[in-house]
Each structure stands twice: as C-alpha cells, then as structure tokens.
Specification:
179 residues; mainly alpha; elongated
C-alpha cells in the first residue's frame, strides 16, 4: 500500500517477497487486513535489522580487538585475522594469532559482549519495543480477520435460539398466568 521502508544495502525485492508471503500466509484480503499485514511485516523487518546490528556490532569489534588498535602497525597477519573474523570464518593462522594475544574466539567474543554491553542492551530494548508493537498489530489483525466470522457465528446462534424457542410449546394457561 505504502512506500517500501528499506534502508540502503537492503533488497527491495527481498522485502517485497517476504511481505507478499506474509500477506498470503495471513490470508489478508481487505484493505484493513493488508495494511495490518504490512505493519506486522514492518515490525518483523525491524526486529531482523536490530538482530543483524547486534551480530555486526560483535563481529566488527572482535575484528578490531583481534587486529590490534588503530595506532599499531597493520601487519599482514593482523589484516588476515581481521578479514577472517569479518567473514565469520576461522583458520589456523587466525587461531594462532588470537592465541598470541591471549584469546580464543570464545574469550574474544565474551570480552566484546562485556565492552559493548550498553550498545547491545539498547538494541535489545529496540527489539522488545518492536515486539510489543508487533503484538498490538497481531491482535488488531485477529479482530479484523475474525470480525465477519464472529458476526456469522452470532447470527447462527440467534437462528438456533429462535428454532429452539419455536420447539418449546407453552400451554395457554401458563402463558396467561405470567401476564
């Protein structure tokens, strides 16, 4: 319905494909249902962004720590370690270089998570906020999607009650004594 809310580096095609898949999965037909499906998708997309940002924050800082400070001389080994960590792959040279600075991948990751705790917490708060917004949109969608079904159910219940009442014979003298 609206403008596709992608950021630089994101695929508009991938966004649209996942939105179309969600609309189909939800069975959104009306304008309101499609709008709510788009909002649900947008929340999910933001949650994915924040999760990716958390991952990137950790990896980039690991690469920075593993390759030394920016003031130290960049060596081929440091550049190799940085490249390997950024690529999320590890070889013997990387493991040896980490060992030389007193770390394993796990200990380096733990150090980064402590140092970047504030940034990671802020991202977690954004994820929690998007999750809360998502819950509201999901509830609204359920109401919009089930409104027709609830109306039909009530109408059927009314019909059944009318039929049940017609089936109950009230004697004339019992009806007149209540008046």
């Amino acid at each position: 319905m609206g403008k596709v809310p992608i950021l630089p580096g994101e695929s508009a095609e991938q966004y649209q494909q996942s939105l179309d898949a969600l609309i189909e999965e939800l069975g959104a037909k009306s304008v309101l249902q499609v709008y709510l499906a788009e909002k649900i998708h947008e929340c999910l997309w933001w949650i994915h962004r924040y999760e990716e940002q958390k991952r990137t924050t950790i990896i980039v800082h690991m690469a920075l720590l593993a390759s030394g400070s920016s003031t130290s001389q960049v060596t081929e080994t440091k550049e190799h370690v940085r490249s390997m960590i950024l690529a999320a792959t590890v070889d013997k040279q990387t493991t040896a270089a980490l060992r030389a600075i007193g770390h394993t991948l796990e200990s380096l990751q733990q150090k980064v998570m402590v140092e970047k705790q504030e940034s990671l917490l802020q991202l977690d708060q954004q994820i929690a906020l998007q999750s809360k917004i998502l819950t509201g949109f999901q509830r609204s969608y359920e109401v919009a999607f089930n409104r027709k079904m609830y109306a039909e159910r009530l109408e059927l219940q009314n019909i059944m009650m009318r039929q049940d009442l017609k089936g109950i014979e009230v004697p004339d003298d019992a009806a007149s004594s209540h008046e």
